[in-house]
């Protein structure tokens, strides 16, 4: 501490002035609203009523856990998150490996720019592109018709179903997974793979026996991150599932925006929030040493 | 030489992966430039008719500028609050520092729909007049943009040697002067990169905006979503072209300011 004591924010009190504005902002506009949402979920259902009352009950949770409709939605969200995480690992790993092993600075930066641009681009725009490709009148169906593989009037259903949502979520999650894995793969000492090679292992065997197992911590924390992001997405199930794949975020919006059922909507929201916070908490515990800096 | 160290199978899979990641974006650009009513295969030729349609459309153009304004407003506050918080986090060794950092970064991974809903209910029940206004959206966007500033400025601070500021102090500079003349110039590129991130995250924000927008205050992603639910409108793709250009320009600018490689691969310092 003495080394730092000469700087401008020397006094502890002065230093706190730096963080108090953001802390206050987060408390007022993040902690309190989310806290009130938890409280709302414990109020009895009253259509159109938003304000929190002192009347506490577990009715909404009992309703959630006794209706197969909502339990199925929760199960569907979790399964979706797991499937998307698994597919995203498989798709992202080779991409991350190539980025990590590209030593030419220009090429390396170019690949990172591609990943970052995809990640930063508005999801609605990326889904527009996916819909143009996968829709009933989309490019793939046009191509299949052109090649005579399907009839001129028929089409293969590639979206507005579970598979479409999975493909959209993989598109959404890929950059996050790639950035997590690049750091991990680059953190693996290349001399280990070289040692395996010099002991006679083929390049593929060295990769399978050394690099891949050593990437496991990163694969795990990347999967948790992707799981949390996937179960939270509204836009992907809405556009790629056409509201036919009922997941938790879709139900929240329907309860609130269409039914003005704030209390039950809050209940679903709390359940989604807790699921995603759990995944994030495990991610943070695992990820301290293994993940990239931004997420 | 470098390429040969990558097993062929992995290289092929990586190319397919990049195609999967980037093809939808290319398709949007083509859909916005197509001469036909919608994108067909093979394409019907290029034209600027949809770009012209976007530029004369009340709906998309006004939400484009609404989003731009909202992103600028968000950028200013996120940059100030986030930079200050990152400075604090780099200069404290209090217990719970890692927890506080995780708390500030948490909105990135927590469900935006839930946080948007929580803010929406909060605005209504407290009657503070923020519901369905640009100010209400602004608050939600600040929550989701500030973590990127903290991450980027934090990385710049981690690379910065504090003893430089101390040297300035020992040579007689006042604390404020030492900070302004020595520390600030050293981290200014990180701050600029962080503010670009904040801008672009706000510009593309959908989930938080869902509950907080109204027909009078409609950001571009929401406007595009509302039209996309019913039909493919190529002028939405043309709006997309402008958004894509904006994102690519900002990533290129970020790359000039900071080393992307070190920024993205910085380990989270846990304690």
From TrEMBL, chain B:
<dbReference type="GO" id="GO:0005886">
    <property type="term" value="C:plasma membrane"/>
</dbReference>
<feature type="transmembrane region" description="Helical">
    <location>
        <begin position="102"/>
        <end position="124"/>
    </location>
</feature>
<dbReference type="InterPro" id="IPR035906">
    <property type="entry name" value="MetI-like_sf"/>
</dbReference>
<keyword id="KW-0813">Transport</keyword>
<dbReference type="InterPro" id="IPR000515">
    <property type="entry name" value="MetI-like"/>
</dbReference>
<protein>
    <submittedName>
        <fullName>ABC transporter permease</fullName>
    </submittedName>
</protein>
<feature type="transmembrane region" description="Helical">
    <location>
        <begin position="64"/>
        <end position="90"/>
    </location>
</feature>
<feature type="transmembrane region" description="Helical">
    <location>
        <begin position="7"/>
        <end position="33"/>
    </location>
</feature>
<dbReference type="GO" id="GO:0055085">
    <property type="term" value="P:transmembrane transport"/>
</dbReference>
<keyword id="KW-0812">Transmembrane</keyword>
<keyword id="KW-0997">Cell inner membrane</keyword>
<keyword id="KW-1133">Transmembrane helix</keyword>
<feature type="domain" description="ABC transmembrane type-1">
    <location>
        <begin position="64"/>
        <end position="253"/>
    </location>
</feature>
<dbReference type="Pfam" id="PF00528">
    <property type="entry name" value="BPD_transp_1"/>
</dbReference>
<comment type="similarity">
    <text>Belongs to the binding-protein-dependent transport system permease family.</text>
</comment>
<feature type="transmembrane region" description="Helical">
    <location>
        <begin position="235"/>
        <end position="258"/>
    </location>
</feature>
<keyword id="KW-1003">Cell membrane</keyword>
<feature type="transmembrane region" description="Helical">
    <location>
        <begin position="136"/>
        <end position="160"/>
    </location>
</feature>
<keyword id="KW-0472">Membrane</keyword>
